[in-house]
Amino acid sequence: MEPPASHGAAERPGTAVSLDRSRYLLISRIGGNSLHEQWLRPAAARNFDVLLSSYDRSVVPPAAGVRFEYRAGAKVSGYAAILREHAQLIASYDYVALFDDDLAADAVTISGLFETCARYDLKIAQPALDHASFFTYACMLEHKGFLLRYTTQVEMMCPVFRSDILLSLAPLFELGFESGIDLIWSGLVHEHPRDLAVIDAYPVRHTRRVSLLKEANGFEGTSYGRDIRSILALFDAPWLPCLNYGGIRRGGRSTESRIRLAAAAATVLLAVPRHLPMRWRLRSVAVYFNHLRRWAPRNVRLAWPPERARGADSLEQSSPRVL
């Protein structure tokens, strides 16, 4: 299998880590306003390779040391094709991140994120969102004082997968849903409360409102909510709240104390006044606080193929192994 075309085979001195030395790969489906250039600097801090897959023909291929391709289509369907066509390349890495192109972060942050995932052998993780970010789940906002929190869920904005886990989930990307698959992958891989995590020590900033580019992401004639309801029904899965099982504090101590976690959660109130309308942001934080008060964290283990599609040959044959 050939890797995606790389533009500028000769590397500029000091501009990128050599492609044959990294244990980590960042993949992103990008458009004309992508922030990927930020991810590459400072070059000396970068411990990861990059594969950019542009759905926009106007995007100029980046400088040397970055794999680049043009691939039409929406975000998740594009990732499905990459996983299908380049499984061997992906398997050669320890961890693989799938980043939205509107995330502001530098190479120090992303490198630290990868190293933390490897250090704690996480199945799936994501960086926390800083308080200036646009967000859906307040649980994903940075919780001051924590290195990481073990969570019930990792969302699809910026997941980091152990590569064997990502390849095992490849059939999920083929189902045709552009939203909601993050609610399913958490249930497919979850075996232990420390399988999934949000990394607070290396937050990123989500710079665009959620759903701002929904057409480019494959939502013509459908909606995020419809996709979510449909995929939950397909797997006969509940929509569980995003909560914390426990965490590791900045000093290195582990905790499962609901009091400590709730105290850290209070710091997300700092995010409310950062953008208008504040009412929507406050509502999301209030929902999170209500879940913290009323619910204990839990995951429901899901099986492949989906319960309502058992016996469908196409699904049975698409899975490389039982998840």
Can you characterise this structure?
The protein has 323 residues and is of the alpha/beta class. It has one domain (24-318): Spore Coat Polysaccharide Biosynthesis Protein SpsA, Chain A. It has eleven helices and eleven strands. Strands 1, 2, 3, 4, 5, 6, 7, 8, 9, 10 and 11 form an eleven-stranded mixed beta sheet that branches. It starts with 23 loop residues before the first strand and ends in a 5-residue tail after the last helix.
Which features does this protein show?
323 residues, alpha/beta, Spore Coat Polysaccharide Biosynthesis Protein SpsA, Chain A, 11 strands, 18% strand, globular, disordered N terminus, disordered C terminus
H and E order? EHEEHHEEHEEEHHHEHEEHHH
Which CATH C-level class is it? Answer: Alpha Beta
Radius of gyration equals 19 Å
Count of the separate structural domains: 1
Distance between the termini: 25 Å
- Please give the number of β-strands: 11
Assign the structural class, choosing from mainly alpha, mainly beta, alpha/beta, alpha+beta, or little secondary structure.
alpha/beta
CATH architecture: Alpha-Beta Complex
**Low-confidence parts:** 1-20, 214-219, 311-323
Mean pLDDT: 88
Instruction: Please give the count of helices.
Output: 11
Query: Biggest β-sheet, characterized?
Result: 11 strands, mixed
**Can you tell me the CATH topology?**
Spore Coat Polysaccharide Biosynthesis Protein SpsA, Chain A
**What percent of residues are in strands?**
15-25%
Dominant shape:
globular
- The level of helicity is 25-40%
